[in-house]
Amino acid sequence: MKTFHCQYCGHPLFFENVQCLQCESDVAFLPDRMQVAAIEPVEEGGEALWRPRTRGRKPPAARYRLCHNHATENACNFAVPQRDPNPLCPACRLTRILPDLSVPGNGQRWYRLEAAKRRLFYTLGKLGLLVTAPADGAADGPMFEFLADLPGQPVMTGHAQGVVTINVAEADDAERVRRRVEMHEPYRTLLGHLRHESGHYYWDRLIADGGRVERFREMFGDERRDYQQALQEHYARGGTVAGWQDSFVSEYASAHPWEDWAETWAHYLHMVDLLETAASYDTRLTIPGQDVEIEEVANPLETGHPGFDTLVQQWVPLTLLLNSLNRSLGQEDAYPFALSQAALEKLRYVHDVISETRSGPAHAAPDAKAPEISPA
Asked: Span 306-311, mean pLDDT?
């Protein structure tokens, strides 16, 4: 995620900020502009609205409301354009079922899930994969259900028919680490879960519905292989697959072509997000002892859309720096992966599919209105 700047005083702003620490302006993310901005209240027609705050020039005509989840739960920092009839911002309206907020701890779990989902929303929006300010209160993108286990009814994280289900236990750090160790995973985060499950959603949208199935099978294998049986066999092996590093981005990716795609998709989103962050900090890199020098990290989410080879050339030394910084603080590697040539070719395929989508016809906003939130 790139660093933003307060347009009123120039101070750095971060994606989750609700106030500028220098000029003390209120701050919100404006999805129609894809910017974090300083805002100020304005009263018009008896309605409490907000507008971008300016210094020394005429205030803009744009007007916003704060997301309903900010006003009632202090759980969102997005604004809603005044013309949009939906009380929820375009990210929050993608959640159709919330956990029971009367249960102790669920409020914080829900907040963490929504914070991760807003980061996913931003990346998908910048990649042109969803409409960030859909018309008439509509929603675009995968829908989400955040559910908690009940006696005899465990919640399985997954995707089906455009709906992503996440077990809210994943928002508890200790529980997530326990599951990561139990499943022999080197990496497990909330944002990683959401990126992975969004991959299943976009397989339906870009591969199955996009006429790309034959090429997909050449790269990832035949998805018609029995999915449930494949997962059962994977877990029966204890997740141990000899030589998986030669062909996959992760061990879990070896379970089934759909999981291979979803893991590769998530990995690509990791890549572009980290590169955008590095670019916003004007990062320059030299690898000690090697003839590798990066004078400027390219931002893959802005205009220009650098080619895949450029992304990889910058990604590899950047992850070396990232892991070295983590080790300096006594932490495990933030990026515990080594990509084979076969895994890189799959990442290239994801890059190409997204690039084709970005360069295609303008993505029309859906007509259907988003469902209202409801407690589980």
From this structure: 93
